[in-house]
Amino acid sequence: MKEKEFKISDATILSAHDVDSKLLVDFYNIMFPDRKDYLPKIWKWLNRSEFYKNKIPLVILYNNRVIAHAGMIPFNILLNKRQYTVAWFIDFAVLPEFQRRGLGIKLSRKWMEFSDIHLALTCNKMSMGVLKKCEWTQNFDTYFHIFPILPFNHPRLIRNLPLFLCNILNKISSPFYKYIYSKYSVSIGENKFYDLNPDILEKFTSSSKIQSSTNVVHAVRDSDYFSWRLLNSPDISKYSIIIIDDVSLLIKLCDNNYSKYIDILLVSDLSKYTTIRKIIASIAIWARKKGYCFIRFYTSRKELSGYLRKSLKSFVRNPVYMYCSKGKELLGKLKKSNWNWGLIDNDFEKFQ
To answer: Is 146 within 8 Å of 264 (Cβ atoms)?
Structure first.
C-alpha cells in the first residue's frame, strides 16, 4: 500500500514497550538525530514508564513501522491539599510523509487519557497547533535565567561566530560579570559540593517540604519521585548538592560539544532571596576557575526572578508552556493558580 493511500484507520496506537525495539530506534534516529546516541538507551527512564505500568510512551504503528511518537514525563502535583496526576508532553513527532493526516490529533487525544492534567513546554509551531486544536491553554509566567560567565561561549553564539571573535568578546565582557558575582559571593571549595546519594538526598528532601498554600500548583517530589528522577538517572554522577546558610541547591555539572555549563535543578527554600543570590554568585566565581561558561536557572516566581535579574544581570526569557485538563472544574482552578516549577520538573535538562 502506498503512503498516499494511507488510511488513519489502518494505523494502531500502542505502547512503545509493545513494539520491536529496532523499529523504535529507527524512528528515534530519523526524528531525533541529535540524540540518537543516547535516547534509545534511556527512553524508558526518561518517560518514567513504570508510573503507568509500561503503557507509555505511545507510538503509532503502520506497516511494521513506527510513524509517530508521543512521550510523557508523569508525576503528581498538589493543589489546594489534593493530589492529581500530571504529565509533561515530550518527544512528540510524526514522520514527515505522514504529517497533516490527523495522526497528531489522534495520538494527542489518546495521550491525554492517562493523566488528570497535561503540560507541554516551548512547543514548535506544528505541535502547538495540534495542542490548540485539543483546547490547551497557554501560559508565559515562567522565567528561564542564563547567568553568564563567559557570555560568548553560549551555544547559540559560539555556533554562529568565529572562535577568535568569541574569545575577544569574552575577554571584554567576562570581567564585568566577575565583578558582579564577586560583590555577592563567598568562597566555596570542593568541600561544599556533596555527591548525590540516598543519605544526602534525604536531608535535601527534608529541607524542601511542600508548604501548602491556596491556589499554588506544587510538584510532589517524594521518595519515589527522587528515586526515579535522580538516583536512577543516567547522569547521576554529574549531580551535586551545595549547602550554604541552610539553603541547599541541587546542581548538575554539564558538558556538551560547545561549552560547559551548570544547571540549578532545585532550590530547597525559594523564599530566601539573598542567600540564593549568594550561592549562585559563589558558584559562578568557582565555575569561572573551572572553565564553565554559564549557569541556568528556571523559576515561576516573578519576584525572585526580578530580584536575581536586577542584581546579577542575568538574561531572562519566558518559555511558553501549555496545559489542559479533562475536567472543566479542575481547569478553572488551574487558570486561577500559580505554578511552582523548577528546572528539575521538566525536560529542559538534557541527558547525554
So the answer is: no
Residue where the block lists cell 495520538: 107
Q: Give the pLDDT confidence of 248-266 residue by residue, as tens digits.
A: 899 999 987 778 999 999 9
Q: What CATH number is associated with residue 179?
A: 3.40.630
135: left (phi over 0), alpha (psi -120 to 50) or beta: left
What's the pTM? Answer: 0.88
Question: How many other CB atoms are there within 10 angstroms of residue 273's CB atom?
Answer: 15
Q: What is the CA radius of gyration of the chain?
A: 21
- Span 225-249, pLDDT tens digits: 999 999 999 999 999 999 888 888 9
- At 9, which CATH number? 3.40.630.30
Q: How many CB atoms lie within 10 A of CB 151?
A: 20
Q: Among the three residues 105, 124, 139, which one is the final residue of a domain in this structure? A: 139
The angle at the Cα of 268, spanning 263 to 272, to the nearest 5 degrees, equals 100
Report the distance separating Cα 51 and Cα 234, nearest Å. Answer: 18
Task: With respect to residue 254, please indicate whether it lies within any of the assigned structural domains.
Answer: yes
Identify each DSSP E strand in 149-275 by its residue range: 193-195, 216-219, 239-244, 247-255, 260-267
- Helix then strand then coil, in percent of the chain rounded to 5, is 45, 30, 30
What is the pLDDT, as a whole number, of residue 261? 94
